[in-house]
Amino acid sequence: MMAGNEGAALPGADGLADAGTRRRWGIPEPRVRLVISGVLGLVIWYVLARWIVNNTLFLPTPYQVVKEGVALAATGELFHHVWVSTLEFALGATAGVVVGVLAGMPMAMNRTAFDYLDPWLSALYTTPLVALTPLFIIWFGIGLTSKVVIIFLLVVFPVTMNTIAGIRSVDQQLVSVAVSFGATDRDLLGKVMIPWAVPFILSGTRIGVGRGVVGIFVAELFAGAGAGVGWLISAAGQVFNTALLFVGVIVLAGFGLAVTGLLRFLERRIAPWRTTTI
How large a percentage of the chain has pLDDT more than 70? Predict the structure, then answer.
């Protein structure tokens, strides 16, 4: 019975085999490795700060950073800075992803549009936005809008480029099969090209999000902010409060990790064929 399926692998067999290998060789699970990595990082940090550098102005200990962060959180100021930066990032990154996908699709499908727009895309992608910050302040003022624009510009270009690359990499055999079954251009876009390009789009989104987190600091440092995590880092540096500076840096790093983790979760749900056992 079912002789044709004798050699077929059961769903999840690779993952089960990988889990068995980890248990057999004593390799910890990924979450355990994450905890071990974090603990080792804290130990190295403490050793460097306490016995090698031994100067809190240059490198505070983890305890001093936690103490400073707790004190700031107790006043509610830390949460206010986090909220301001989160709002700026959410607006700029969302607009960047949406515009990047919508701009990348016609450029990938229309050679004429690509030839006209690609030089501008490449030029703007490589332009240092810090140099344009004074112009953004003149155009949009020192309020929320200028910061959202800076984050938007940092996010939109990686998403656009990866959308173009994803759609252009579609297997032509799939396109031929779809056309042979009477698929229209709309069907090709919605049922073949976009699903194929989803992993590319998500990869571009992860890159864009990383740039967007950097954009929080750039926008709040150069666009006249009065609040936000980037502003907090700048203000702490001006008064040589290294522990507070580390609080801001750690908050930004944690924010980036959280957003990246969310995107990885979405990738596993939207494009499960991209999951790996590594």
Answer: 85
